[in-house]
Amino acid sequence: MKKALTRLGTLIAAAGLAISPVAAQAQETNPGTPDHQHFSVSGFKSYEQLVSKLKQIEQNSQGRVSVEAAGHSNRGRAIHTATVGHGDKVIMITSQIHGNEPTGTEALVNLLQYLGSSRSPRAEQLRNELTLVAIPQMNPDAAVLNRRANDMPWEDVTASFPSLANVEPAWNYYTRTIQGHDYSKRPGFDVNRDFHPDLDYQPQPEDFPGRSSQPGWYITPEAQTIRDVYRSLTQTHGKVDVYIDLHHQGPYYKVEGSDDLVTLSLSGQFVPDPNSPEGAKYSEYADRYNYDFSRQLNVAAYNALQEMGHSPFDNITLYPQGLDLPGTALGSFALNGSGTVLFEVRGQTQSMGQKKRGQLVKAVETGLNGILDSVAAGTVHEIDPEDYEKIPSTDR
């Protein structure tokens, strides 16, 4: 039987704390939008430390890991890719599209260090079977500011796209206080709403301001960079088999009847099936969309976490389903044929401390390794996709 879960926000409301209209609006734009998102970045790598660590991993890998600047943020910071392996199965993993969500970044660095240095039979198999392309920090400007949105005023958009000069700014453009951060002096965009399933799409004035159930526009350099990496991989390898995006969901979910907080949530559903009546508007992508494969990948991660057999690995849930978010990287790339997995790990707050941070990074690593092993060995295709529906659910 699925565990029943309730939002910790229910407890907040019961205590008489009102949720602001901004928080309510953010709640409607899942995935990756907790109502209150105050994370401590103490102990996590700064942008400069991350760049230095990636270069060190490359130098020590004896040619196994290649680090490149795939593009640049709006403020000119390099967005790095790290590639390891030469197999036919292509896996792209991204983290920190929201700058205050760094757990996945730490997990990716650990994974790259292992694959770059280990001579174990397992590491050799992964390198032989997979081509892994990691982007540990998609939004470095936001990471430096420890906030969700990038650092980009609307004027920078219209400078790049003059045809948008007289349109209303995009709906995901932050100019006020959101999730405790004041964007009035340094506005920016939720980059994870700036994707479009048409990888060649060019912004059109009539598509603004848009809304969460519509595609984005590739108006931010961060989304453009990720799109370009994805598109280049499809051109070189035929397709990106797997796309994984690493997020935080904040400490807002708990198991009903206990004080156990959810460790992380998984999902493979971000748009309705193009072969269904609900997804008819995406019918042009119907031949590419592979929801069953996404479900198998998520089960592979879930099984690996369950095998750990102890806290914090036992409170793994299914992220809220029924989403229609083509403006997310996950939604757009799923429509382009990639199996997709969302990781939404519990947020790090100052009260959780160094030990909890390490446990949660390990949870992300464990789930990722479950996917990599199953894809490399081919056993992912033996998983019953319906097992996905047995993962404990999470209520909104």
Automatic annotation (TrEMBL):
MF (Gene Ontology): metallocarboxypeptidase activity; zinc ion binding
Recorded family membership: Belongs to the peptidase M14 family.
Xref: InterPro entries: Peptidase_M14
Domain of life: Bacteria
Ranges of residues in domain Peptidase M14: 43-396
Keyword Signal in record: yes
One Pfam family here: Peptidase_M14
PROSITE patterns registered for this protein in UniProt: PEPTIDASE_M14
SMART domains per the UniProt record, alphabetical: Zn_pept
Keywords, alphabetical: Carboxypeptidase, Hydrolase, Metalloprotease, Protease, Signal, Zinc
GO BP, one annotated term: proteolysis
Annotated Gene Ontology cellular component terms: extracellular space
Range of residues in the leader sequence: 1-26
Name of the protein: Zinc carboxypeptidase
Required cofactor names: Zn(2+)
